[in-house]
Automatic annotation (TrEMBL):
MF terms (GO), sorted A to Z: GTPase activator activity
Stored InterPro entries: RALGAPB, RGPA/RALGAPB_N
Annotated protein name in UniProt: Ral GTPase-activating protein subunit alpha/beta N-terminal domain-containing protein
Keyword vocabulary terms for this entry: Membrane, Transmembrane, Transmembrane helix
Lineage top rank: taxon: Eukaryota
Transmembrane stretches, start-end: 426-443
Record organism: Acanthoscelides obtectus
Pfam families assigned: RALGAPB_N
Domain Ral GTPase-activating protein subunit alpha/beta N-terminal: residue ranges: 159-280
Length: 444
């Protein structure tokens, strides 16, 4: 074994990971161990017996959901009934993907039961869940982690089926985050920790083409950030959650989609910050058709979220350094367990780092331009949707006419005349001051 790699695996904390939340407790260990404390009692029995029980029971439970035939009220009338069935469903979600029908039934049952958190729950939801929807929903959400765990040795079609089930769960959680009026703080935290855990499970390992993580990468990240923003408006996350988000994102920096979604959130928040800082007459930052910022978000909440999201991926300069990006437990484990690999920075997925760095810097540049009042609509396509090679839009785009920098709306009124040369110097000086400010915010 490479002794140097072994020692690096046991490093507790790098200087880069300390960041702005260094005095707060991290929940990273909790998300890495997610699922271990929710194992089903059926794990204690032989697989054939447990599987037969699960397949028969979940098929019966799914039959009255109203998916293939009219829905019926649930026959589960006590907490004991529901708890026992949930033990079985929990086991079913961890089955091999060859049992895709049973897994589909498990997903359908939990997605329908989770409607207990919505204003109009489905008729098939058991009464005990309706009586205490937050408690049961937290348990169901924790069980659903098993669905997102990659299975080894599966073919492309089977992996695609798993991705379809995962999409169903993510849609349900999005609906709950948008529409529920009864989520308690503990449920918000459980939901955010679940999203962090599934992202970490899928995205922390080095990229493997066409595996389930590759298929779900953009989707799980977008849902994480979208629901996180809703939580900011409804029940602002505590500092340990923000610290865990930052630590987790720094483990996913080898994924192109992370920087694209980071840019998406930053630009969306920046567009709101500009409005309340400089008013409606300031040049607008156009961010595309999907406005991911919740309508009820206060100005203070927007400003806090903007600053915290800027710090989420650490120092962007690190994206140019494979040795830094690969300094994670999953990369080090890969290097130790793979013959012929002397160092984790040799993994082929790190060849995408120049593109990732370029996207990150273009995103920062887009924010700088927005604050200077010269933002271009092309930024949204290039840094969020990843349309680097698509030049047709760029060719047909209307040439951008740059407004004075900084724009008139942001200039201080002066009672004395200023020569053209001194005005130009002031413009350049203000630009470099602002650029320096943004970089300092991100790096520290």
């Amino acid at each position: 074994m490479n002794l140097g790699l072994f020692n690096r695996m046991n490093l507790k904390e790098s200087s880069e990971s300390k960041g702005m939340y260094s005095e707060w407790t991290s929940l990273s260990l909790a998300i890495q161990q997610s699922g271990e404390d929710t194992q089903s009692v059926l794990e204690k029995f032989g697989l054939p017996v447990s599987k037969d029980i699960t397949v028969a029971l979940v098929h019966q439970l799914a039959s009255n959901l109203g998916i293939t035939q009219p829905a019926e009220p649930s026959h589960l009338s006590s907490d004991k009934d529901v708890q026992w069935c949930m033990e079985v469903i929990c086991f079913g979600l961890s089955l091999s993907l060859t049992e895709h029908e049973a897994i589909k039934d498990c997903v359908n049952v939990y997605c329908e039961w989770l409607t207990a958190l919505l204003p109009n729950p489905k008729i098939c939801v058991p009464q005990p869940i309706l009586d205490d929807p937050n408690l049961y929903s937290r348990k169901m959400i924790s069980h659903l982690h098993y669905l997102f765990v990659p299975r080894k040795g599966e073919g492309f079609d089977t992996i695609h089926r798993q991705a379809v089930f995962c999409h169903r769960v993510l849609r349900t959680l999005q609906q709950i985050a948008h529409e529920s009026k009864m989520l308690e703080r503990d449920t918000w935290e459980a939901l955010l920790l679940f999203l962090l855990a599934i992202n970490d499970t899928l995205l922390s390992p080095p990229t493997v083409k066409d595996d389930v993580a590759d298929q779900l990468c953009e989707r799980v990240l977008s849902v994480l950030f979208e629901i996180w923003l809703i939580a900011c408006a409804q029940c602002f996350p505590a500092p340990p959650l923000w610290k865990t988000l930052r630590e987790s994102c720094m483990n996913w920096r080898h994924r192109v989609a992370l920087v694209e979604q980071w840019n998406r959130v930053n630009l969306a928040l920046t567009s709101k910050v500009l409005v309340f800082m400089y008013g409606p007459s300031f040049p607008e930052l156009k961010i595309g058709e999907d406005d991911i910022i919740p309508p009820g978000m206060s100005n203070d909440c927007i400003a806090q979220s903007w600053y915290r999201f800027l710090n989420t991926i650490g120092n962007p300069v690190s994206l140019t350094k494979p040795k830094v990006i690969s300094q994670t437990q999953k990369f080090l484990q890969f290097a130790i367990s793979t013959d012929g690999i002397a160092d984790p920075c040799q993994h082929s997925c790190l060849q995408a780092l120049p593109l990732i760095f370029l996207k990150a810097i273009k995103g920062i540049a887009g924010q700088v331009d927005a604050f200077l009042g010269i933002a271009q609509p092309i930024w949204w396509d290039s840094v969020v949707t990843g349309a680097w090679g698509s030049t047709d839009k760029n060719k047909n785009a209307t040439p951008v006419t740059h407004s004075p920098t900084p724009p008139t709306q942001r200039r201080l009124a002066k009672s004395f005349s200023v020569t053209q040369s001194s005005a130009t110097k002031g413009i350049r000086y203000s630009f470099f001051l602002f650029l320096l400010l943004v970089l300092v915010v991100i790096v520290h």
